[in-house]
User: Fold Competence protein ComG from Geobacillus sp..
Amino acid sequence: MCKKCNGFTLVEAVFALALLLVVTAALLPLLTQMMLERENIALKAKAQRILDAALYEENIWQETTIVEGRTTFVIHSGYEENNIWKVCVRWNDYAGRRAERCGYVKR
Assistant:
């Protein structure tokens, strides 16, 4: 064998690839969870836009359903005491959790 070889041996290259594989396998679930939460934040923003539109509409009564993509938003509305109109938007996010946003307007 040569005494002053420059470069990597096969063992060093295999060890580096194995280390890269372990780090990737450890970070993959975290990356998947981050992507899922990013999509859930986008759903929350859609629900807020629907809620804002519903608060200024006067013809939404009782229950209305809006389907956007894979998600179904259900709008509930009704009057509470002191002439305050309550509007709530409910949906199931991509993690299977039920979410709700509510808004109030004095009429």
